[in-house]
Design goal:
single chain; nucleotide-binding; Alpha-Beta Plaits; 2 domains; ATP binding; ABC_transporter-like_ATP-bd; 6-stranded mixed β-sheet; binds adenosine-5'-triphosphate; 303 residues; P-loop_NTPase; 11 helices; ATP hydrolysis activity
């Protein structure tokens, strides 16, 4: 449903997206993650036709975005980071506005509005001005407006940024439901707990896709490099570990210290070199995986 073929996007000398290729199947929830400036928004903007690639091609629902933009627009919904809601209009007035924009007839509009308001549990708030909604409700309203023309493919740019954890969970329940009905969803997120919920995750760093797989596989691949440190003095051990060859990073994780080793580095060698520290194998979260992968990239770039 989504195909990105060797796409590069430059802004002057900056390569915001570098030689990116990606295929996403119908019904997938694909998560694009990466630090600020990694190129996620630029990728989404090219997919929805707001920006042309410098090189390469993109297609959505089998249609080339560069050649068939109008037809592509009929198939997609795009929820940008700053989606345009009208604060002084109520929930339903915002929905009226967007359905008029899409040219949806009123009977169909009313049917869909009832369905979406029910799905998002927003029916009690339909008369509330958008400006008076909580962050999570605003995002649900933006999603409903995006869904009004029944897109087959949904592009969401950090849709839950700044939203509280319960509302984020609520929002994701809606995404699951949409995907189970066959919608294809590409979502960028800074929250790695959300990335865990995706069918596949792509990690972007400085414009490049450095890994792309199912969360469980990424964790399995990186597990041999991830450890939890034990020491009489964790803080001092962290300082020593950071200067030990083969260590990519030693990062606090709550009260614990997580240590990431270069591929092929033996934990016993690091324990010996750092002194007064024991490295226990860690069942990594995606966050551990991504720290390890990004530190590896940074090492390669510095070398
Ligand atoms: N219109 C533009 N003109 C110049 N540089 C741009 C433009 N848009 C993006 N960039 C640059 O391209 C790089 C990638 O930006 P992009 O917004 O795609 O990253 P991102 O991963 O979405 O990060 P964020 O979460 O902060 O939006 C950044 O260095 C950014 O400054």
């Amino acid at each position: 449903m989504i195909r990105i073929d060797k796409v590069t996007r430059r802004f002057g000398p900056l390569e915001a997206v570098k030689d990116l290729s990606l295929d996403i199947a119908e019904g997938e929830i694909f998560g694009l993650v990466g630090p600020d400036g990694a190129g996620k928004t630029t990728t989404l903007r090219m997919l929805v036709g707001l920006m042309d690639p410098t090189q390469g091609s993109l297609s959505v629902a089998g249609l080339d975005v560069g050649k068939n933009l109008d037809a592509v627009k009929d198939q997609i919904g795009y929820m940008a980071q700053k989606f345009g809601l009208y604060g002084d209009l109520t929930v339903e007035e915002n929905m009226f506005f967007y359905s008029d924009l899409f040219g949806i007839d009123h009977a169909e509009r009313d049917r869909m509005m009832a369905e979406f308001l029910d799905m998002t549990r927003m029916t009690p708030f339909r008369q509330r001005p958008a400006a008076k909604l909580s962050g999570g409700m605003k995002q649900k309203l933006a999603l409903m407006c995006t869904l009004l023309h029944r897109p087959r493919v949904l592009f969401l740019d950090e849709p839950t940024n700044g939203v509280d954890p319960l509302s984020r969970r609520d929002f994701w329940e809606i995404l699951y439901r949409l995907a189970s009905e066959g919608m294809t969803i590409l979502v960028s997120t800074a929250y790695l707990d959300e990335a865990e919920r995706c069918s596949r995750v792509g990690l972007m760093h400085k414009g490049r896709l450095i890994r792309c797989d199912k969360p469980a596989i990424l964790k399995q691949q990186l597990a041999p490099q991830c450890f939890r440190a034990e020491s009489a003095d964790l803080r001092a051990a962290r300082g020593r570990l950071q200067n030990t060859p083969g260590v990519l990073g030693a990062e606090p994780a709550g009260a614990a210290l997580h240590v990431y080793l270069e591929a092929g580095t033996a934990a016993a060698d690091v324990e010996r070199a750092a002194g007064d520290v024991r490295l226990n194998p860690l069942d990594p979260a995606l966050e551990d995986v991504f720290i390890a992968l990004i530190r590896t990239e940074e090492r390669h770039a510095a070398a």
